[in-house]
Each structure stands twice: as C-alpha cells, then as structure tokens.
Design brief:
This protein is an alpha+beta fold. It has helices at about 5-10, 20-30, 60-70, 70-75, 155-165, 220-225, 260; strands at about 35, 80-85, 95-105, 110-120, 130-135, 140-145, 165-170, 185-195, 205, 210-215, 240-245, 245-250.
Amino acid sequence: MSSKQAYDNPLLGKPGDITIDPDVVAITTRCSKWSLDPIDCNTLSSSTTSTNNNKAQTDEEKSIIKQIVSKEMLSAPLQITFRSKTLGSNAKRPNWMRASATLGNPSSLRSKPLRAVWTCSNADADTSMTYEELNNDNGRVSRKEIGTDVLNDSYEECLKRLYGKYVELEVLLPRTKSMIRGAPPPSVVYRVPIQGGSVNPLGMVSKSRATVTLYPKGRTLAAANASGPGAVNVKRDVAIPLGLSNVHVPLGPGLVDPSWSKGRKLFWKGRSVGLV
C-alpha cells in the first residue's frame, strides 16, 4: 500500500472501505466497462404521478434541460470505465470512486470525454429514494420511501427497493457562461440495480433500466450528509427526471474454457434450438 493510496482512501484495508465490497471488486475487475444507451425521455411523457423521480416534466423543466443538456447527451451512447480509486480524503463524498466517461464511440474523433464518479448505494442512503418531510398541517416529520408502493411508484424504483443495492453513477456536465462562479457544475445521475449472475456467478447483470436524473444546480449532497434534529430542514438538491436508459454490462468470463470446448460439436455456433 503506497502513501498516495493511503491518502486518497483513509479506510483502505479497514472496515468501511468500499473498495473491498464484493460488488465493487466484481465491477472493477471483471466487468468494468459498461455502455449506456442514449436517454429515452419519452418514458416520462405518459407519466401523470407526482412521486419523486417519477413525474412528467413541466415546461420550466423542459426549458432548463434544453439549456444544460446537449443534444449529444440525448443521442449518443455513454461509455463508462469504473475504477476503484476513491476520491481524496478531503472530499465531501465518502465511499465515492472515480470513473472514466466518454460520450460517443471512444475511437471516434467526435467522442467527448466527461468527468464521472460512482458508488454502490442503497435506497436508505439515497435521498431520492428515502427522505424525511415536514408536514405543515400537524408539524410532524414523516418518512417518505419511494419504491414501496407498487401501485403508484415506477417499476424501476420498486426494483431498487427490492434488490437493495444499485450503482449510482454521476456524470459532471460542462459549465455554461450563465452559471455562478464557484457553484457546483450540473450533473446527470444514473441509478441501476445490480446483482450477481445466477447461472454464471462470475458475471453481473443489471436488473432494470437505469433511471436518469438531472441536477441543474449541481449535487451538493447536503441533505444526504445532514444529521441531527435539523436535518429535515436542509434543502434538497433540485432534481429533474430525464427518463430511462438501457445499460449494457459485460457478462464476465465464461464458465466453459474456450480451449477445452474447441472442436466439440456441442459448442459450435448455429446449433439447433433446444440442443443441450
């Protein structure tokens, strides 16, 4: 362990170190390169519910999206390479790691590199899924949990609550001239539940499409890091739902050794359907 690694990750090798999480190890070592399809904004057009992250976009929100989100972000795929290197010890985001993001084909000259960070989150730690709200009628604090009501919440949100753990990827967007100097840059957050493969335990699969959320004023995570009696009064970051995106995860190493199966008719391509 080098001194630089110890500085970047004070919990390295200790309890609470996210880099030793089995899912983090599986992602960064066996299937680190993911591909995300362009965002499908049409998935929100027919939604009429008012739950968090599952509501139709208003005209004001659509105007903000046009100003911040580029056309390439809505039309080009996003290539992600996950890394286990955590953010610096002075960062405000414990257990967040770095990632490499490229908008478009990385081999193309038109591809655009972007900054990205990621973590393995859960519904209880994510303020978009679980948060406390003050009721003005009786003055009581009520706990809101998205994904528990299968009749009103979306299918993707219910799966996050069901599987408990999901990848939370935040892509930082370029700043615009109208932004206040020193303010955090806008970002787009992808959330997708994950689980190890059932047939192939060395693989990993995404259990649903990724929900995509835009944070036009940046993501400060003030509400997530707040604690104590006054935590409910901390303002939550402005979030605008963008839609859904398909996630393509590498299957990981196969169970059958290619050199062993070579030449055996059972493993030839184009075999009859139903042949075991």
